[in-house]
Design the sequence.
């Protein structure tokens, strides 16, 4: 019975995002590459791509020999354990893929082994080649066949060693040609051959045939060790023997996350008192966006008692348009949240719904730092705002992950959303719940002007989320109820998809605050620039993950 090794991998740039898989069928004795498969599969999760790679690899092995005994090696612990029957398959997207993989070949002919990622480089390379091709609107194509004497295969695999041996056996004129120092099999035996096109004298007057035979013995010795590690010593006997399963207690993949310390809080935290220094690692203005990898479910600690309310951060024409305290850091703090121990439990393997949150581009009011909500003049984008919209459209097109565009009804958002949607070839859906706060009599005023005219109302608004702006505006508590209801409607409509929400400062900060379980006063401690990107993932089990905050790299 023929025996093959199948190595498979899949990846997603965004999870879900543009995805692809790679698979390779190898000869377990020589390490020779017998078949390669790769494909760009559009928007999918890592797990879907990994299963698709497995299926493609098994089908390639079946095409070579339907009765083959196959050892599958993957760096996906999930796929290996599920296909080995040790883990249950709970997610509905995984069940049909696992069922298809189980029917490609009879289950008795296939066994599974987890390997570290660094030992799965061939399949990983193919998956990345497929995703690169998809980014350019193409599908992956296998490379053109190499010249007869040129070893093929990625550096470090057994293919080059086998090719070097074949080259040594057939070359003439007293020379040997091959890949200098190519690794033969996992044992690392070397095929001692000269670089392609070069000549190597055979010492001691030995004939080329003797030298080639020595290479063959070295290659066979290394390949035999590799084959025995895969299938056991019986792989080289005439009588087929049962394939041994992985040893019990297979270690977990390297790189499993463990809880780490929580970094300083939100960006836009009030500046240190005069004469003090900022904490080490505090980002400079315009720094990289915050990446909160852990899912969180408990509230962040409230500000210390007696702390004076701070003027809102976020500059520009928006819901909290007061200028930040002098020296207050702009940009986003790089944080890892471990609140409540929620983020490091068993993973929800389902694809989350991801909201990419885009604040609209600048209007004429933005650089003047005036309150500009839903009860004012509804300004259009300024020339600078239109340039920002074009820049973010290009950035999102390059990422290729957005599947739908939803916008606030206000003009500045609709114009920003349309610029992005035109670039992505998507329609724009208007959602009333994404509008900005109604700031009542404060519309069009600066923070200083409001402090001068309505000092008591302003202080009450800073002190309590239930206080509304002067003249019948909207409190932050009311905005939270509206945004929460909108979030739930959109999550129901866009389950498992990546959606661009084009909205305003208060809705974006509210969604981030709710995802983090942070208190209402945290709204005043986040910086949010015009045309910035943030992102929150929502899982079916109720957990959330803040992936991005105030990313403005596309504007630089």
Sequence:
């Amino acid at each position: 019975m023929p025996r093959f090794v199948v190595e498979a991998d899949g990846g997603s740039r965004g999870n879900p995002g543009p995805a692809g898989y790679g698979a390779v069928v190898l000869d377990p004795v020589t390490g020779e590459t017998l078949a390669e498969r790769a494909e760009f599969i559009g928007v999918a999760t890592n797990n879907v791509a990994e299963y698709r790679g497995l299926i493609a690899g098994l089908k390639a092995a079946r095409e070579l020999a339907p009765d083959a005994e196959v050892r599958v090696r993957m760096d996906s612990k999930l796929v290996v354990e599920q296909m080995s029957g040790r883990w249950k398959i709970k997610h509905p997207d995984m069940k049909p893929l696992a069922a298809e993989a189980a029917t490609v070949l009879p289950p008795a002919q296939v066994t599974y082994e987890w390997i570290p990622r660094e030992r799965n480089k061939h399949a990983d390379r193919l998956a990345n080649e497929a995703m690169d091709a998809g980014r350019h609107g193409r599908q992956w194509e296998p490379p053109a066949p190499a010249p007869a004497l040129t070893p093929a295969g990625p550096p470090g695999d057994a293919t080059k060693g086998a090719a070097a041996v074949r080259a040594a056996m057939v070359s003439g004129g007293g020379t040997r040609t091959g890949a200098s120092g190519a690794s033969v099999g996992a044992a690392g035996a070397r095929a001692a051959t000269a670089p392609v096109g070069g000549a190597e004298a055979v010492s001691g007057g030995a004939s080329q045939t003797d030298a080639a035979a020595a290479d063959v013995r070295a290659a066979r010795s290394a390949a035999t060790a590799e084959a025995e590690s895969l299938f056991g010593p019986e792989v080289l006997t005439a009588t087929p023997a049962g394939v041994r399963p992985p040893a019990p207690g297979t270690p977990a993949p390297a790189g499993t996350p463990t809880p780490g310390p929580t970094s300083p809080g939100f960006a836009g935290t009030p500046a240190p008192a005069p004469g003090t220094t900022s904490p080490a690692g505090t980002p400079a203005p315009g720094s990289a966006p915050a990446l909160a990898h852990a899912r969180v479910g408990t509230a962040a600690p409230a500000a210390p008692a007696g702390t004076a309310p701070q003027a809102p951060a976020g500059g520009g024409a928006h819901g909290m348009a007061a200028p930040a305290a002098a020296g207050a850091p702009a940009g986003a703090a790089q944080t890892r949240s471990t609140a409540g121990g929620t983020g490091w439990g068993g993973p929800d393997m389902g694809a989350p719904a991801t909201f990419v949150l885009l604040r609209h581009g600048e209007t004429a009011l933005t650089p003047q730092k005036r309150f500009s909500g839903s009860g004012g003049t509804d300004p259009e984008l300024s020339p600078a705002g239109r340039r920002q919209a074009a820049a973010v459209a290009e950035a999102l097109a390059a990422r290729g992950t957005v599947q739908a565009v939803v916008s606030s009804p206000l003009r500045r958002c609709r114009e920003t959303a349309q610029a992005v949607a035109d670039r992505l070839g998507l329609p724009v859906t208007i959602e009333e719940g994404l509008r900005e706060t109604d700031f009542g009599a404060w519309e069009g005023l600066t923070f200083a002007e409001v402090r001068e005219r309505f000092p008591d109302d302003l202080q009450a608004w800073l002190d309590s989320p239930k206080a509304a702006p002067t003249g019948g505006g909207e409190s932050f508590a009311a905005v939270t109820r509206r945004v929460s209801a909108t979030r739930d409607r959109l999550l129901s409509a866009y389950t498992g998809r990546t959606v661009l929400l084009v909205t305003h400062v208060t809705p974006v900060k509210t969604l981030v605050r709710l995802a983090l379980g942070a208190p209402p006063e945290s709204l005043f401690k986040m910086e949010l620039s015009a045309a910035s990107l943030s992102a929150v993932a929502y899982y079916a089990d109720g957990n959330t993950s803040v992936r991005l905050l105030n990313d403005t790299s596309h504007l630089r």
About this structure: Residues 353-555 form a domain with the Rossmann fold fold (CATH 3.40.50.1240). The CA atoms of residues 271 and 325 lie 7 Å apart. The first strand starts at residue 3 and ends at 12. Residues 148-209, 232-344 have pLDDT under 50 and may be disordered.
